[in-house]
Amino acid sequence: MKSYLITDPSYYGSSIDTLEFSLVSIFAQTCPDFALFRDKQTYDYPSLAREFIKMCRCYNVPNVVLHGDYLLAHTLKADGIHLTSTQFDAISEAKTLGLYVIISTHTHEEALRAQELGADAITYSPIFHSPNKGEPKGLEDLKEIVDKIRIPIFALGGIMTQEQIHAVEECGAYGFASIRYFID
Fold this sequence. Notes:
This protein is of the alpha/beta class. The chain has eight helices and eight strands.
């Protein structure tokens, strides 16, 4: 079961110092298989992204991913990009740049479309209750989508316990993605 850490400024801050402090604390305990820098409110995403990549490289995170901006991900030599569910048209462009492409999906149709357009993996959410993310999909729905598509699926949304991780693993998910699991 692959682990996918996602940052959020509510927990990681929006300064280099707070980001570094948070990451050092997390990486002292675990090294996720994937790590995504996501901060939709910072005025200086490129500088923070650069620091995030540097920190992840220091701690040997295998797959370092940026959010939304595939040109920046390519420029900063990130391993991949996590596209939003409104960026399906960017999949091929990001792939052309040699990036590993993960895209957010919330329906079976979106998951199938991501696969057809060549995404390497998807997040599918929300599986469990997650603040402001709508009605949870649940484990049965996760199992259905796992059975429908061939690309890796990261279960996302409300995953905070080992029991939840085990449950999504039993559904056949490739991995789990979380913000709060890594900091709680």
